[in-house]
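Design review, sub-item: ligand-bound model
Attendees: FS, YL, KQ
YL presented the inputs for the zinc ion complex:
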Amino acid sequence: MKTPVFRKSPRTPRLRSHAGWLRLPPFANTADLLVYVHLSHALCRIDVEFPMLYQWILLQNGSLPLKPDQQFTSEPHVCSATLVWPVDTAPAETNSLVVDPCFSTSGLTFAVRQLSALGASLEDIGFFFETHGHGDHVLNIRPRSSAASSHWSTRQWRRWTVSAQQDLDATRGIQPISCPGHADDLQALRFATREGETWIVGDAILDLQWLRLWQYYWPNMYGRDDVLQTWRTVAEILAHANVVIPGHGPPFAVDAALLEELVGGFTHAEHHEHCADVVDRLRHRLAALRR
Ligand SMILES: [Zn+2]
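KQ shared the predicted structure:
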């Protein structure tokens, strides 16, 4: 039989956790101990994975003229651009990053207005991050636009990388997650907010409408493996996220109703018969949300 780890020091029992050794307080009964262990374990896991809380705003509202029914609308083809920075702080050079900074002229005007409402400006942003290398997501800004001040330039924004994440305490809680399918190099960003776990996913999910219909961006001529990878990436995102900021549409919550709908409609997903693991993960998350 294994020796309980706290037997060596009965007065100040300790527990091995993700974060090292925890000193346990005295307990009235075993039930208290179990609750404490459970809570400590959960808290440590959260602390390790998400050492900081963040907030975000959209600097550009993403939209896509092509609809899943193959109709085109007059909406512009622009990505969602999101500013992320720690809660209880103001966006600054050392703590803020804009994700997918591919701005249209009107998008930039909107960005300036959004920042101004925070008492900030484009000059205050420190970093940028591109979810993938497609032309509608990479750094593109028109410094001569009347929206940007004449002396401002994107040279002030540094590319945010994993090493920047390690070097900068303010961004240590932002995790890049590989999300291939739509593009091999696609990386989502995952971080904690007051609303729960938030994922900025680029085109791993185009928008809620495309997701609900299990459609992918077919004009890119994806092969079977890409499509299967796309669904597996969707499952990875929906297995964790509470809030998703998709590549070309408004943010949405991941709740039981959405997961039920996706599980029910999964047979409409192309090649669904080759990736039953996807629907299994969604069912698993659905069960967790109902608990
Ligand atoms: Zn895109």
